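# step 3/5: fold
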Amino acid sequence: MHIGMDFDNTIVNYDEVFYKYALVEKLIPVNMTVSKNQIRDYIRKLPEGNDVWTRLQGLVYGERMNETVFEKGADKFIRKCRRENIKLSIISHKTEFDASGRGINLREPAMKWMRDNKFFADKGLGFREGDVFFESTREAKIARITKRGCTHFIDDLIDVFEEETFPSGVVKMYYNPKGNASRPDVTEFSVWDEIYEYFFGN
């Protein structure tokens, strides 16, 4: 067994950080739901909203990456996989620089976050840096999933599983806290504890 996992919004939760800095920039009301996706949808409706959202993404995924946290239960799942000697890879569609053109490096803060959270420590989560892949396109991400020989892949974006090139033999595990997919070709999970139970039972 070889479980591949996405990174952003699958292992890492950005909700609180997007909420915090959207408030700082006076982009959302205080009573806005603390949800990255809802904040994104709200901001995109503002004048020049796409550009505003792109700049906020660069801030959060860049210099404020250190303020983010694990999706609840993700680290518990990874530790259990290590105890069971299950092979793991992190495969993410993450460009090297942000889309605003300001030259903000997005991969270095992500790697630092993993180091700070003991992904590569001897008594940490057991990854080697060679187990982590940041790809510049979705096509390259899917090719990497195939090349790594993943048997399962966990992702928060249904679009990845809808690509024609997604390998047919890989179990599609859709991490979807909204719980609204209801698709026969994906196995859907609203929390990491459900993924834990899928593999290991209670």
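# step 4/5: annotate
Residues 49-61 form the longest helix (13 residues).
# step 5/5: archive (pending)
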